[in-house]
Amino acid sequence: MKLFIHTGYYVVLLVLVLLTGCAKNDLSLAEMDALRTGNSGNDDARINEYLVKHNIEAVRDPSGLYYKILYFGDSLSVMQPTSIPTLAYTNKLLNDKVVASSFGGIDFDGRQLKDHILGWQIGLRKISKGGSILLFIPSALAFGPQSIGNLIPANSILISEVELIDFK
């Protein structure tokens, strides 16, 4: 009987170890690779130059994302990767050319946070519902080597001012 009880404990322990080892990360392998390789030193230098020129104090996240919290929000409701955000935003390039704007709240057809660019995934979790943040997103955390139509060239640094109106 003791052998059966001890064997049961070992089986439960083994199952827990296997489940823990198989837990899915919030980021895909490609996204983790982008974070590991980081942004180029050139992106860092260009972002810092912009910050100095515009007299903006921003914090650098270990991922390479620079951010300035404009308003933290309600301090109670922080998004998870599977949350569906409703945002008001403006995206521009380092030359201050606006390339996209929501003109009010938008939920991107119910897209979860984990399906947005990495810069937003990292930055929007730094504020809570009702908050707003200014993000300086290196190309590796934005659209990388892809160009987005004729608006966003490949390897562009993106500046996003985002208000987190709500999320589900």
TrEMBL record:
Record's superkingdom?
Bacteria
EC number, as in UniProt:
5.2.1.8
Give a yes or no for keyword 4Fe-4S in this entry: no
Per UniProt, the keywords (alphabetical) are: Isomerase, Rotamase
The UniProt entry, under Gene3D superfamilies, shows: 3.10.50.40
Against InterPro entries, the record matches this protein to: PPIase_dom_sf (IPR046357), PPIase_FKBP_dom (IPR001179)
Isomerase among keywords: yes
* Catalytic reaction list: [protein]-peptidylproline (omega=180) = [protein]-peptidylproline (omega=0)
PPIase FKBP-type domain sequence ranges:
82-168
Q: Which GO terms describe its molecular function?
A: peptidyl-prolyl cis-trans isomerase activity
Q: Which family does it belong to?
A: Belongs to the FKBP-type PPIase family.
Name assigned to this protein: Peptidyl-prolyl cis-trans isomerase
Question: Which species is listed as the source?
Answer: Chitinophaga defluvii
User: What does the organism's lineage look like at the top?
Assistant: Bacteria, Pseudomonadati, Bacteroidota, Chitinophagia, Chitinophagales
